[in-house]
Design brief:
4 helices, 69% helix, flat, transmembrane helix, membrane, transmembrane
């Protein structure tokens, strides 16, 4: 796929994300919440994360599709350090979930704690390998 085609797709996607952002803001201030659609209940607690995500995604899509500004090239070592930090934070969050017996539920499904043990092992390994490769570079 050519870069021009990708930019046109990004323009279309930015329109969709802008519409989603406008709809989310409208729901936030219209008093229609909580709202259930397709078995998912949307309430006030879900509004601000959705607005922040939509705004960030819209910014990235607009930046890419209309050539606004220049993105500095990220060196491989910097990329590996950032990835290592992110994996470390995720590993710490899963370990905290295990340590403090925090329940995590998605709709009706509650994630078992043994799943967090697997996540701790995988993300800790990825964190270690990211830092190890960053030091080698």
């Amino acid at each position: 796929m050519s870069q021009k085609t990708l930019r046109e797709i990004a323009k279309f996607a930015s329109g969709l994300v802008a519409a989603d952002l406008a709809t989310t803001i409208w729901f936030a201030y219209s008093g229609l919440l909580p709202l259930t659609s397709f078995g998912i209940t949307f309430d006030e607690a879900m509004i601000w994360p959705a607005i922040i995500f939509d705004a960030a995604l819209l910014t990235v899509l607009v930046h890419y599709s209309w050539h606004i500004g220049k993105i500095p090239a990220l060196r491989e070592r910097s990329y590996l350090m950032i990835a290592g930090i992110i994996f470390g934070v995720i590993a710490a969050a899963h370990f905290a979930r295990i340590l403090f017996q925090i329940d995590f539920a998605i709709m009706d499904w509650t994630a078992p704690h043994w799943l967090s043990w697997i996540a701790v092992l995988v993300t800790t390994y990825l964190c270690y390998m990211s830092f190890r490769l960053a030091v080698r570079r």
